[in-house]
Design goal:
Elements (H helix, E strand, L loop, with lengths): L12 E4 L3 E2 L16 H8 L3 H17 L8 E4 L6 E5 L1 H11 L6 H11 L9 E7 L2 H12 L10 H14 L4 H8 L3 H16 L3 H4 L4 H8 L5 H8 L2 H6 L2 E4 L2 E4 L3 H16 L11 H6 L1 H7 L56 E2 L5 H10 L8 H22 L3 H8 L8 H8 L7 H11 L7 H9 L8 H19 L2 E2 L1
Parallel strand pairs: 2-4, 3-5
Antiparallel strand pairs: 1-5, 3-4, 6-7, 8-9
Helix pairs in contact: 1-3, 2-3, 2-4, 6-8, 16-17, 17-21, 17-22, 20-22
């Protein structure tokens, strides 16, 4: 009899713990976070006290009992970098990395990790047995089997599963049929993910979180918010009608006045997160059912979008009627006071004379001076195209200044002028740009489902669509880019 050939997931191979790369797109992690070092990953993982304690329990178990790989750690090898990335088992690999190098642990747990590291011979965990998936697609298939609804293994939280669906959806050009084929999820589940992840992401907008305390905002940012509660609320047809929300095959459309929508959403979150709110009880799946009328009446009224204004989607806010061009081009602060442009989405220009850059390029400096004067409200399409142009010029300036053109051309195996903006940003991220906030911006730009993405910037130049050119949207786009521009061309206040 011929020997039975093992499937790839049945084989184990030895790999160095130090050389295993943690998976940045792990759905358990916040997709907007820039994660480079082991410490970055661990800090993101343990931002909740329960998660921190569970992680420390894992480290203690390995330190006292040794590493037991009953549950396989699955990796795949990148065809270009040849690095092995962990698809399944990131928590265990983080624990092993910290036990081997406890100085890399976050300060909040370092003392504990250092103590536990003394209980184990680090050489014993230098290499571990892993399952090597033939490709990323195979690794993705494997984790879908483990974490899908039908799986008997440890499942992802609701939001984690939905974010994974969205990542697959984006990777196949937002094709639902291909997403169905890859994930095995039904069309309804994919459309549902498109709807609720979009609504969930709106919760983290500053216009919403302004209604929350700092502790409550951290809960929203940490992706620990209860998705089931949001689904119960927004799944109610009365809510959708009153808040001017439409569910369709493309996900969700919001036809509400943004200011009122954000206010109502922020106060809903307040009720969900604050045990001592004015209602006297937290909003959850149970109280939504038992006290719906009371909750609904308590929350502010959401107005319909103004005539002639586009729907707010995730970011758009109608232009306020108070914005007039009377002082748009003055370039001078009123009453000799410093203009408060930073962070104000209703401001007239992206930036002002109190901001400066450091660039050796005449073109970059000239364009920046023009952007200091350009009235966004009067010329939104020019402003939108200028963001795209200015960003790529700044990226090129940084690359040239650090003599990276040749390196990039070799990596992409094409002439430098043929490399796209997205490809440049991917190479710079983490390796040549070390600033955490700057890399977080790059993550947002490269995430296709974000409204503030490279895709949107490309539409301004090459597309035929005329959406996402509202002045407030553009101002927020500039603000989002500021940490990256600070790294690329030293954008700063003076």
């Amino acid at each position: 009899m011929s020997q039975e050939v093992k499937k790839w997931w049945e084989n184990r191979v030895l790999r160095s713990v130090d050389n295993l790369k943690l998976w940045h797109e792990n759905p358990r992690l916040d997709p907007s976070s820039r994660l480079v070092t082991v410490r970055d990953y661990v800090e993101e993982l343990i931002n909740d006290p329960i998660d921190e304690q569970n992680f420390l329990n894992l480290i203690k178990s390995i330190a006292t009992r040794g590493f037991m790989s009953f549950d396989p750690i699955v990796v795949w090898q990148d065809t270009e970098t040849k690095l092995f990335t962990v698809a399944e088992g990131n928590r265990r690999v983080m624990a092993l990395k910290l036990l081997r190098a406890p100085e890399k642990a976050p300060l909040s747990i370092r003392k504990t990790v250092v103590g536990l590291s003394r209980l184990i011979d680090r050489d014993d965990i230098e290499k571990i047995k892993v399952v090597l998936a033939p490709s990323y697609e195979d690794a993705r298939w494997y984790i879908l089997q483990r974490h899908s609804v039908a799986s008997t293994q440890s499942r992802w939280q609701r939001l984690q599963q939905q974010r994974f669906i969205i990542s697959v959806y984006d990777s196949v050009g937002q094709n639902i049929d291909e997403t169905i084929e890859i994930t095995g999820f039904k069309r309804a589940a994919i459309v549902e993910a498109l709807r609720y992840v979009k609504l969930r992401d709106i919760a983290a907008r500053p216009e919403v979180t302004v209604y929350l305390s700092s502790e409550e905002r951290e809960q929203v940012y940490s992706h620990k918010i209860n998705m089931t509660v949001l689904e119960r609320w927004f799944g109610n047809s009365q809510v959708r009608e009153a808040w001017h929300i439409k569910f369709d095959e493309d996900g969700v459309t919001i036809n509400a006045d943004s200011a009122s929508f954000y206010a109502a959403y922020g106060k809903l979150l307040k009720l969900m997160l604050d045990k001592n709110n004015e209602l006297g009880y937290q909003v959850n799946t149970r109280t939504i059912d038992s006290h719906f009328d009371e909750i609904f009446k308590y929350l502010p009224t959401v107005n319909s979008v103004m005539d002639g204004q586009p729907a707010p989607s995730a970011d758009d806010i109608p232009v306020p009627p108070t914005a007039t061009p009377s002082n748009a081009d003055s370039g001078k602060p009123k009453n000799n006071s410093r203009p408060t442009l930073k962070g104000n989405p209703s401001r007239r220009q992206f930036t002002d004379k109190y901001h400066e850059i450091s660039s050796s390029s005449y073109k970059v400096n000239a364009l920046f001076r023009e952007l200091q004067k350009l009235p966004v409200y009067n010329y939104p399409n020019v402003a939108a195209a200028s963001i795209r142009i200015f960003l790529e010029l700044a990226v090129d300036e940084f690359i040239a200044g650090n003599d990276l053109k040749g390196d990039m051309a070799r990596r992409e195996q094409k002439a430098y002028n043929e490399i796209t903006l997205s490809q440049k940003l991917k190479i710079l991220r983490g390796e040549f740009i070390v600033d955490r906030e700057a890399n977080k911006v790059i993550d947002q730009l490269l995430h296709n489902s974000n409204d503030h993405s490279v895709n949107t910037l490309n539409e301004y130049i090459h597309g035929s669509k005329v959406h996402k050119v509202e002045p407030q949207f553009l101002n927020r786009f500039w603000d989002m880019l500021s940490p990256l521009l600070a790294t690329l061309i030293s954008l700063k206040e003076v």
